[in-house]
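Running this now, will post back.
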Amino acid sequence: MVTAVANQRPDLFAAVIGHVPVTDMMRYHMFTGGHMWSGEYGCSEEQGAVDYLMKYSPLHTIHPVKYPAMLILTGDHDDRVVPLHTYKYMAELQNTAGSIKDQNPLIMRIEVDGGHSGGSNRMSKITETVDVYAFIAKVTGTKLQSQ
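Update: finished.
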């Protein structure tokens, strides 16, 4: 949802964090368990679905505009939302909008050997959380205080 909203109204956000987003609404149903979401999202193979899916599909609604700083997270072993969603989205985002003057950072974070929603152990989850908060603090100018 956050990637779809960021594409529609990039002016509303300083930073966007996308945790394992489904970004290719035309093909999500072709990978791993994606077909199980057809009841929620609709399916591009159904009559009339392409018209409404294309209106919000994050991968298909990227424009050459200045986006908020974006950090998109995935795990390279995610079997629910396959990492190709993040890879394709970020590649298209950087290709289409990356050359915009003063573009904000457009970054993906890949948890190596990580599954759905990041780390496979407590330490990797803590590290991911620290990275997310540090990213937000950096792009918004927030000063972090140590205890």
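The radius of gyration is 16 Å. More later if anyone needs it.
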